[in-house]
Design a protein that fits this description.
Length: 316
């Protein structure tokens, strides 16, 4: 059953903003509230009621209560990279905790959709060839996505009456997406890990929005991997992007990218460094069978669309 009053977090980001716009266009949904600390750079979509709020503040509970929200889509978690990595990590974790606390106290809430990431599995020399939803999550210091999911599972135990859907997205790449990985492939000379050729699985932003929309308007509880069909080797991606690979030791890659003049800065999280070393592939069988969704864009097609858009932007 489609929600009637819906709240979407993280609408200032490309993915959250597009999702809120798609949901607002659904005539079966009465209200869509878009929450973020700042409005979208492209403007607030039609029928989306923008709420300037920080979900780390307990007052988010008042927003949910006063608007009589029955469905929450938590699309706010952002990649923790760059000079502000610690601050972003705090917003992700503390924001999730406060939002879940507000959801727990809301008697009207019947559905929660959480945008997670395939980063929860990590990437290492001992990783399986393909991760399934049943595989253990990564531990260690850089475990923010897994920590967020731990809080989500805690919420599920306290509110078993709420339909909970967790979507673990593969690496996003495509038009409108500005990530460390997208910037990495824009470097004229692309540092790669000497002796390794990682298998990478990608997800087009259109498919990410469509999958999250389906999770929101239908009752499909559970955990689902979301990624495009197929994989692409890192060496293939570099060639398809029209770039030149420069093999080197993994520890030297972050420093090497800073020496490239005229390129956007690439801030390497520990997970991105491991991804470029070992790669990561997720199984999407449950997405297609249980969830009932098949991405339109394969990994290769999503990457080619990113390259085409990047070339158009550079020629303007």
């Amino acid at each position: 059953m489609a929600p009637k009053v819906l709240l979407v977090t993280g609408v200032a980001d490309h993915l959250g903003g597009r999702l809120a716009a798609r949901l607002a266009a659904n005539p079966d949904i009465d209200r869509v509230l878009g929450v973020d600390t700042r409005p979208p750079a492209t403007g607030v979509p039609a029928r989306v009621e923008f709420v300037a709020a920080d979900i780390r503040n307990p007052r988010i509970a008042k927003v949910i209560s006063s608007a009589k929200v029955d469905t929450v889509v938590h699309a706010a978690p952002r990649a923790s990279v760059g000079p502000s990595r610690s601050a972003i990590k705090e917003r992700n974790v503390i924001g999730t905790m406060q939002l879940l606390a507000a959801c727990k106290r809301s008697p009207r809430l019947r559905k929660l959709v959480v945008k997670s990431t395939a980063e929860v599995y990590g990437a290492s020399a001992t990783s399986p060839a393909v991760f399934t939803e049943q595989d253990p999550l990564a531990g260690g210091r850089d475990r923010e996505p897994a920590e967020i999911e731990a809080y989500v599972r805690g919420f599920a135990r306290r509110r078993p009456d709420v339909a909970l859907t967790t979507m673990r997205l593969a690496e996003l790449i495509g038009p409108g997406v500005d990530t460390a990985l997208a910037r990495y492939f824009r470097l004229p000379v692309v540092p790669t890990v000497l002796g390794f050729d990682a298998r990478v699985q990608l997800l087009h932003p259109q498919d990410a929005v469509a999958a999250l929309e389906r999770a929101t308007v239908h009752d499909l509880p559970g955990v689902f991997n979301v990624g495009g069909d197929g994989v692409i080797l890192l060496s293939q991606a570099v060639r398809r992007a029209g770039r030149v690979a420069l093999p080197m030791l993994r520890a030297a890659i972050p420093a090497a990218t800073k020496l490239v003049r005229g390129a956007a800065p690439v801030h390497f999280s520990p997970d991105l460094a491991r991804l470029l070393n070992y790669g990561r592939v997720i199984d999407t069988t449950r997405l297609k069978t249980t969830f009932g969704f098949a991405p339109r864009w394969s990994t290769a097609a999503a990457f080619d669309d990113y390259v085409r858009t990047a070339h158009q932007e550079m020629s303007q």
